[in-house]
Backbone:
């Protein structure tokens, strides 16, 4: 009876705050309607009393943990589920006030970074292949019109980067965090560049090398299992896509300093990375950052754009162009989530139930976060600081020449 009274009061408080019609179903058959009136679009099934504790004081990490461990099950469209979860977490924030998201600082070194990358990327190549595009590009796509399919948008993203870099035949390109090799392969095959791609993921390294061999590009593309801090030499162009999120906030100046040291005097570098919308570079709110750190990206730290730009300058580079791709990543993640839902039976056969649940809510949760400006993503184009003004382009026209 105590639970009945407490849950009834909780449900009544939530109704005006939650936009999604939803229902809580307990293990003993009792039900409570929450959210706006109407036929429930989401049903939360509490399988034991531990789920109630997280529901009565919800945050995204507590709700996510209950779902991952099976204390809580969900029914309904995954996009509605995430909207409900954010609504529940926000209701706690509104009632209790934001206690503040701690600035987590992971102790980054070669061993810890390699372990974190392996945890995230070495789940299974077949797992990623079920919901990524055919080239397995695991980063924000680029939609010139908005109606492109995922494969087209990912190819456009790679071309957008290589066009910004003014990559031309015979130049050398270093791709830090090369994934499964799609960017370096296109740079070699369609732009005539000589490329080096580095990754800390053994799965990515082995598959990327096999793809390079199969495409007949081994004379122009080298894939290395290597830490960016151990790279030597000089390169005409440097790209880094989805990498600096793993570097650590304190290490960002040194990271950009390393790019500076590897870049030719007249070279260009482009960093494509996720940022937080919090000016103090704290965790993503409502417990989302804690969930991601625990279950998805150990040691991941997102800087605010202002911190990233300062680190670029501290690394001896000058920023010459910045582009916000937040809308593009919201769309990319929505398409990934749709693929994930369509392939859910296949995916369940590839990973554990916990991993299935983690990635299911992670993908659509991130789409929601990008849609609502909790996180963003920027491409930052730079060159060595101190160059003459005449070496900077008059306009950005060259980046879009010949495009619709």
Residues:
């Amino acid at each position: 009876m105590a639970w009945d009274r407490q849950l009834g009061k909780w449900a009544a408080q939530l109704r005006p705050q939650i936009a999604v019609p939803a229902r809580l179903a307990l293990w003993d058959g009792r039900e409570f309607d929450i959210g706006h009136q109407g036929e429930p679009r989401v049903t939360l099934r509490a399988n034991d009393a531990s789920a109630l504790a997280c529901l009565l004081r919800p945050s995204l990490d507590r709700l996510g943990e209950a779902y991952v461990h099976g204390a809580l099950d969900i029914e309904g469209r995954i996009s509605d589920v995430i909207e409900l979860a954010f609504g529940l977490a926000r209701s706690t924030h509104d009632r209790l006030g934001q206690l503040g998201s701690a600035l987590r600082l992971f102790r980054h070194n070669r061993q810890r970074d390699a372990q974190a990358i392996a945890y995230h990327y070495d789940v299974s190549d077949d797992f990623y292949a079920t919901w990524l595009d055919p080239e397995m590009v695991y980063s924000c796509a680029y939609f010139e019109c908005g109606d492109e399919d995922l494969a087209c948008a990912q190819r456009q993203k790679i071309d957008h980067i290589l066009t910004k870099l003014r990559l031309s035949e015979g130049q050398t390109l270093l791709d830090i965090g090369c994934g499964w090799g799609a960017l370096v392969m296109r740079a070699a095959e369609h732009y005539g560049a000589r490329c080096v791609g580095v990754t800390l993921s053994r799965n990515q390294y082995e598959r990327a090398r096999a793809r390079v061999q199969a495409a007949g590009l081994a004379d122009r593309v080298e894939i290395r299992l290597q830490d960016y801090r151990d790279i030597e030499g000089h390169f005409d162009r440097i790209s880094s896509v989805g990498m600096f999120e793993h570097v650590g906030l304190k290490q960002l100046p040194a990271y950009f300093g390393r790019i500076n040291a590897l870049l030719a005097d007249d070279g260009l570098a482009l960093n494509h990375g996720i940022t937080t919308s919090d000016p103090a570079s704290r965790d993503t709110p409502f417990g989302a950052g804690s969930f991601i750190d625990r279950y998805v990206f150990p040691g991941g730290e997102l800087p605010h754009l202002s911190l990233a730009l300062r680190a670029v300058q501290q690394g001896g580079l000058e920023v010459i162009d910045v582009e916000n791709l937040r809308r593009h990543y919201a769309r990319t993640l929505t398409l990934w989530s749709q693929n994930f839902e369509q392939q859910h039976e296949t995916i369940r056969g590839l990973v554990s139930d916990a991993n299935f649940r983690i990635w299911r809510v992670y993908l659509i949760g991130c789409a929601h976060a990008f849609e609502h400006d909790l996180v963003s993503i920027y491409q930052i184009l730079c060159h060595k600081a101190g160059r003459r003004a005449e070496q900077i382009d008059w306009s950005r026209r060259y980046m879009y020449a010949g495009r619709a």
